[in-house]
Amino acid sequence: MKGKCWKFGDHVDTDQIIPARYLNTINAAELAAHCMEDADAGFAKKVKQGDIIVGGDNFGCGSSREHAPLCIKAAGVSCVLANSFARIFFRNAINIGLPILECPEAVAAIKEGDEVEVDLEKGSVKHLGTGKVYNTTPFPKELREIIAAGGLMNYVKTVAAK
Amino acid sequence: MGMTITEKIIAAHCGRERVKPGEFVYANVDIALGNDITAPLAIQEFEAAGLKRVFDPERIALIPDHFTPNKDIKSAQQCQVLRRFAHAHGLKHYYDAGRCGVEHAFLPEQGIVVPGDLVIGADSHTCTYGALGAFATGVGSTDLAAVMATGKVWLRVPSSLKFNYNGAMPKWIGGKDLVLLAIGKIGVDGARYQSMEICGEAIEFLNMDERLALCNMAIEAGAKNGIIAPDQTTVDYEENRAQRPFKKYASDPNAAYTKTYDFDVSNLEPLVALPHLPENVKPVRECKDIRIDQVVIGSCTNGRITDLRTAAQILDGRKVAPSVRLIVIPATQEIYLQAMREGLLEIFVNAEAVVSTPTCGPCLGGHMGILAEGERALSTTNRNFVGRMGHPKSEVYLCNPAVAAASAITGHITHPDEVL
Ligand code: SF4
After folding, report:
1. Are B361 and B237 found together in one domain?
2. pLDDT exceeds cutoff 90 at B189
3. For residues B50 and B329, what is the distance between their CA atoms, to the nearest angstrom?
């Protein structure tokens, strides 16, 4: 995954990612049109296919709405990097197959508009401007299994339900 | 090494003697919950995966509460998805408008969730039921879809933080203030991925409504769950409620905690959380010149009968300030009825408040009182994020019902002592 970075601060909550006033639908395209609206009103228009969101601490805190990672994915964002993720957002992203990575060192080095390349399997982020590579710990085995199955529902069908 | 109450409940639900923090487990779920925002997505996933049967029609609760009574055509369609699914699968715990209320007030009240349960809810405030001594945590819609199919959930066993509240509870202080005290101390991610275990002599004297308000906001500290060990208050509460036999768990004396926090509450003042994070906590007297346009008393945090009694005690014989709209929302039908019997609703209406049917409504900026640009609300709800109750340039301040009622009368944030 390679893309241009959009930077956000700490504690970006789910009400900023997708305000509740739009939650009367589960249509991903409709939700994507309001992606990050209360953090950056023009984001949904500016973001390009493959771009990367870079958050600070506790990204995705707040409600359990899966509409949050869903609208980010539907907006074309290829990956979210952050210092840390709020618990439910982390689960939801894994479960729906939105690539995420916790990598504080890379986050500190990345500036708005920088281009980076993310390798999820290795857990590494390469800053294309400086050429520097930042490594993190890959996900534990149990989570990689869910990701490898293509999300939780596929995993349920193949493994847990048998 | 002993185990915490959270570890014990998780172990019991995956047929193990013991579990350790950090371990991944697949645990059996007693009750799975969804609402009119999260369940439609779960149902879509469930059906798209070609699944035909739910694991147990008696253990899935679908509660339409957020945009109900349906506020527009789209939300009506969402509720229709729930209704159809509930009927198709013969779900026992489906309750339509007029028969339920805010999910986290309704499920404990009706004894659908009980002490010792492992509850998974596609709503972040599912952590509320920790007040009963259950392990309850919020998840997303895909998780709910998987639980509806298998009755199991993947969990990483959380480590635990201990919050010890000592001293006698002063007047006008409730569960809301105790949890705001903790969030103000540790921050909105201070308990991220961890369990918040609540104990101490101050907790022993809290009634169940106050305990539910306290555990409700564990998620606002980033916690996986909040939990209070069952005691006599819990057992009394469950009498004539619990729909299933329940089990009482308690932490071992030598259980391990990442950290212990001690609070002395005896001199605590009511607290207010300022925009735009629940961790921006200040004593009410430091906020007194802040003018407000709207006050909301309700929600899964503070919409219970104890809260309404407190608010009515302050509003009795008084009028809401001309510049303020007060909206009171009993959290369930049972609370509504009780408030009616006790004459509380009459007090509110005489004070010139709006009294609404049970709904989440304004708490999430859904309906029933949305804020305009530049407006400021004081609310007994749990979140004050940007745009939470309406326009992105509006503000939300959080407080307990006593402060909310007193402030509605004066038009600015006010200590209840100044009114009563
Ligand atoms: S009352 Fe508010 S916080 Fe509680 S479930 Fe409803 S929207 Fe969520």
Report:
1. no
2. yes
3. 40
Residues of B (252-311) whose Cβ lies below 8 Å from A: 277
Contacts of B71 in chain A (CB under 8 A): 24
Mean predicted lDDT score pLDDT of chain B = 97
Decide if A151 touches B, using CB distance below 8 A. Answer: yes
| Structure confidence by residue, pLDDT tens digits, B215-227 | 999 999 999 999 9
For the four alpha carbons of B99, B103, B104 and B108, in that order, the dihedral sign comes to positive
Percentage with pLDDT > 70 across chain A: 98
Inter-chain touch A24–B67, beta carbons under 8 Å: yes
Kindly state the average pLDDT of the residues B303-328.
98
- CA dist B113 and B97 (Å) reads 20
- Cβ(B420)–Cβ(B314) below 8 Å: yes
Residue type, B377: A
Residue B109 lies in a domain: yes
* B144 within a domain of the structure (yes/no): yes
Nearest CA owner, ligand 1 atom 5:
B300
Statement to judge: residues B224 and B97 lie in one domain: yes
What lies within 8 Å, CB to CB, of B27 at 6+ separation is B10, B13, B14, B118, B152, B153, B155
**B37 and B168 co-located in one domain:** yes
Residue among A83, A87, A95, A143 with most chain B CBs within 10 A, to mutate: A87
Query: B325 in a domain, yes or no?
Result: yes
pTM of the complete model: 0.94
Please indicate, yes or no, whether residues B101 and B210 belong to a single structural domain of this protein.
Answer: yes
Boundaries of domain holding B186: 5-244+251-262
Considering the domain architecture, whether residues B228 and B355 belong to the same structural domain is answered as no
CA terminus-to-terminus distance, chain A:
34
Name the A residues in 25-54 with CB < 8 Å from any B CB: 25-26, 37-39, 41
| Residues B310, B216 share a domain | no
**Number of domains making up chain B:** 2
Asked if the structure places residue B277 within a domain, the reply is yes
- Provide the CATH number for the domain around residue B301: 3.30.499.10
Q: Which long-range contacts (CB under 8 A, 24 or more apart) does B370-373 make?
A: B371/B293, B371/B294, B371/B396
Angle at B125 between CA B123 and CA B128, to 5 degrees: 135
Q: Which of B233, B262, B291 is the last residue of a domain?
A: B262
pLDDT of residue A147: 76
B187 and B291 part of one domain: no
For residue B364, the CA-to-ligand 1 centroid distance in Å is 7
Q: What is the ipTM of this complex?
A: 0.90
Tokens of B1: 């090494």
